[in-house]
Amino acid sequence: KAGVTQTPRYLIKTRGQQVTLSCSPISGHRSVSWYQQTPGQGLQFLFEYFSETQRNKGNFPGRFSGRQFSNSRSEMNVSTLELGDSALYLCASSLLASGYSYEQYFGPGTRLTVT
Amino acid sequence: AQSVAQPEDQVNVAEGNPLTVKCTYSVSGNPYLFWYVQYPNRGLQFLLKYITGDNLVKGSYGFEAEFNKSQTSFHLKKPSALVSDSALYFCAVRRDNDMRFGAGTRLTVKP
Question: N or C: which terminus of chain A has fewer CB atoms within 10 Å of its end residue's CB?
Fold first, then answer.
């Protein structure tokens, strides 16, 4: 089975621009979560989608948004980029049935640099 | 609100020695507990999880973790460390929709 894929792997943007990151989960996985990883703040949860519905959202401003498509692929969008948005953005997928005991499988991440 | 703490930023051990990476958590009810490892320029990889049952959980690459409910801890262990175990380790706790990660512990295994 192919793993979680994220595109692009690297991205350089300037302040004020917007960016869209893409994530394709493992085949059969219906849950996709997004995380922001920075040296100072560690791994912070952005949001989780299941069956095209946002199930949970972290404490990030409205500039951060996401969506999930019927094939479980997900995108996240960041508008009006700020320097502080520079980070590694990780996508993770998991099976999600009756509980939340399933482990997450992470993609390699998208390294976003805002200049 | 639930939280997870990894009290050590850095752990150094010699190759062949046992290693322990500590994790404590604060959550109501019965959480699900996870350990992940991150190698340089890679995403996180799942190591093991505790859902219920036996307090000693065995995972990938010879790692194991011990769940201690009274101490609310879930420490990661390995009997004999390898240089290739050097990486960043994350503990995570999940309760319902809420998933939280610790700050990470950098493990360095010296030859």
Answer: N
